[in-house]
Amino acid sequence: MGVTCHADSDRMKPGKLHISLLALAALSGASAAPQLSAQSIIVNPTPSTLKVNVRTNRAAYTPGDHLEFYTRVNQNAYVYLFNVDAAGQVTLLASNGLQAGGTFVKANTTRVFPRKGQPSTFLLTLPAGVNKVLALASTRKLNLRDLARFEATQEDVLRVNVQGQQGLAQALSIVVNPAPPSTWTTATAQYTITHRDLGRLPGVDAGALKSQVTFDARARLSEVFVAYANRLRADGYTTLTLRDSRRDSLSGLFVKGDRRVALDVKKAGRRFVVQLARRS
User: Fold this and answer.
1) Domain housing 216
2) Highest taxon of the source (predicted)?
3) 267 contacts 216 by C-beta, under 8 angstroms
4) pLDDT band of 156, cuts 50, 70, 90
């Protein structure tokens, strides 16, 4: 009996060892899963030699300020730059090749959004509040087409069909899942958008075929444009395109369901002309 029991015990040891290894492997796999974070949006818990850095040229902006985002990697990598605004709208910053296919950035070089010397109307699309920028770097090109449907909104911005930090994090956790854990990493930065109160500006009718007002104000062109754009956003419209055609005018196309309206703001001295017109 003693010999039999001893033989059974010996046969069981490899089985126990096998079970232990399976459990350890399961735990290792679970720990390698991307982690969602309120502070950092999405984090890779697996150590990686790949590092990415993202920063802004200022901590706070108002309409009309010059915005620059800087991204840098320590290895050759594809970089994807996302912005989550105070309302939870997610955009992919596409200037200078930062687009759905990713930007191939060489080691120890810095990319700037927007490209140097290129003005950007991106600030005019953002509501007041705290914004967060997420830089996702990968040594392999990622398939963001599976993340969501992209809509071209401006030359330098693509709107992503997910909402908020959690929505972006969940979508990206699926995107990076096929990649080896050590091949990707992330970094975040944040900045604040503030809008100056311009007081009671005359109203324009978004329901009319065309509505126009003229008034005097001590304000920048960008401030007046944003004030009327905010009224449209409060009424459920989203920004489709913006155009900074001249230094004395700004134009934007806004959409709500199947309705599109064009907002045009012109400035001459202190005189402003604001027009809202329906587009088919």
Assistant:
1) 210-279
2) Bacteria
3) no
4) low
SS3 225: helix
Identity of the residue numbered 188: T
Q: How far apart are CA 255 and CA 211, in angstroms?
A: 17
**pLDDT for 3-20, tens place per residue?**
433 434 444 444 443 433
Which two structure tokens, joined as six digits, stand for 256? 């709500």
Single-letter amino acid code for the residue at 260: R
> CA dihedral defined by 211, 212, 215, 218, rounded to 10 degrees?
90
| CA-based end-to-end distance of the chain | 91
Q: What CA–CA distance (Å, rounded) separates 159 from 37? A: 22
Which residues neighbour 7 within 8 Å (Cβ) at sequence distance 6 or greater?
none
Distance, in Å, from the CA atom of 126 to the CA atom of 122, rounded to the nearest integer, reads: 7
Look up the CATH number of the domain holding residue 222: 3.30.310.80
